[in-house]
Amino acid sequence: MITAFVIGGGGRWGAVEVGMLQALTEANIVPDLVLGTSVGAFNGSVIADDPGPDGVKRLVGFWEEVSSAGIFKGGLFDRMRNVATMQPAIHETDELRLLLEHVHGQGRSIEDLLIPFQCVAASIEKAAEHWFTEGPLIDAVLASSAVPALFPPVEIDGEHFYDGGLVNSIPVGRAVELGAEAIYVLQVGRIEAPLRPPERLHEAALISFEIARRHRFAADVRNLPDGIGFHLLPSGNPVKFDDRRQLKWRNTGDSAELITGAYEASSSYLKEIGRR
Asked: For the whole prediction, is pTM greater than 0.85?
């Protein structure tokens, strides 16, 4: 049986997925395939490289480092300069690349990872999803994580890429295409909060964005073939479409709390289905 971990996007809430991975590891559930989008590409690349307790420790250490380093804060002058000079993004990717190199080392390829790993990005030129299955690991993760306006597009072999969440936020369908028979979905909590019709003007845009984000996942789940074991791990962090925490995208100070909440919720779920 091929077991796939499908790890979705979620920016600052990526720490949630670390708690889920901790619960899966303690339940002795090891993937044969790891698929990631955006921050899920990073979390997935680490667990594909080290699919056990040590890999989870590496991720915990990374999120602690992100919290203390304030990587998404940057200098006020630099941010204002980028906006004033009409640059395509508020932040550069230099600091994020350094952190990824600290975790993975320099010169790693996707093929070097212990478990087969793929991550998705959005090709600007082709207006389509692009799956990285081989080649430089850090470039692929950066491409999958290049949130428009926050980070510039990542150029690889003459093609430019934005965040994979634009085209496939939680790539369940890809896992099915690759033969997965048991799928564990790790997500940050957005899809756990129901949507409702807008009551204010600004809510129309927020709800529209959530529909665009969720519809591909919903369709994939509806069309799952018979016989596939599908597990949507609870996040302990339901994110409503109007959650004001989304405005604090640079604040990663609650990473430890997010990890713990997801670990407890997912551990309880795995116990209920007899996997602990």
From this structure: yes
